[in-house]
Amino acid sequence: MGLRDIQIHRTTVMYREEAISVRGISASDLFAVAQDYGPSIAILFGKFSSGEIDQNIKKHMAMVMSEAPDLVGAIIALATDDYHPDSIKVAKQLPGNVQIELVEAIFNETFYSEAEVKKLTESLTRMITAASGVLKEMPQSVSLNGTGESDAKSAS
User: What is the pTM of this model?
Assistant: First the structure.
């Protein structure tokens, strides 16, 4: 069986008479949302890593929704395959109980168990630690502008 033959599983949540179909979040979804909502993700990841948020993510969902409503809207939009500012706005305006049901459905489509959350966190921690080590080892003369001179030098 090839990848083209696989049907991505989805869960449907009803909002009044409208069906909202969501899938699990993929690695590319995480990277897309990280570009737009990196600071919110970093704060939540820090709380998760420090133990302030334990492995039972569902228990902490209200806190996440109140501290990062834009991120929650973005995740809902991603899981509906409609990642667009207008869709994020609509997702943020849905009633709280519908948002919670959608986030739970996305969570259940993304992770088979709470143990999967722990595995993902450990993997992300290793990757972030490795990336931090590489960044610390970079020579000071390397810049992100690709010229080999510091951005401050090129500005003068």
Answer: 0.70
